[in-house]
Amino acid sequence: MAKSLFGGKGIIIREAHFPGRAAIEAYGNGGFRFADMSHRGSLLCLPSGIHGWQPADPSALTSADFDKVLAEAADIEILLVGMGKDLRPLPAALKAVLREAGISADPMSTGAAVRTYNVLLAEDRAVAAAFIAVD
């Protein structure tokens, strides 16, 4: 039997997380670039940092997809939701949950959300974002 090079524990896969706030430098090809790094897949940009995000169904978002956002609601006034290539409204139930938490949610295309996020972040606003990756 071969021994593992990792002390017998195997490879540990951790959740993608950048512990800081950073502007989004580029998006497309299924991912994003920020802070001289790249991430494949969708992102949550929160006061606690930038997190990899995988909504259960990007075309039918639910409040469960926003648990991390809701956990940091006290530090968020505006949530920009990049819905992909095209603008789609947020489900009414999700908007109600976010509003109840004191968060104003604005859906838009991912490109528009990235640009708006960068401006609001530069203005040091209490902004967060949920970006669905686009090809």
From TrEMBL:
<dbReference type="InterPro" id="IPR036748">
    <property type="entry name" value="MTH938-like_sf"/>
</dbReference>
<dbReference type="InterPro" id="IPR007523">
    <property type="entry name" value="NDUFAF3/AAMDC"/>
</dbReference>
<dbReference type="Pfam" id="PF04430">
    <property type="entry name" value="DUF498"/>
</dbReference>
<protein>
    <submittedName>
        <fullName>Mth938-like domain-containing protein</fullName>
    </submittedName>
</protein>
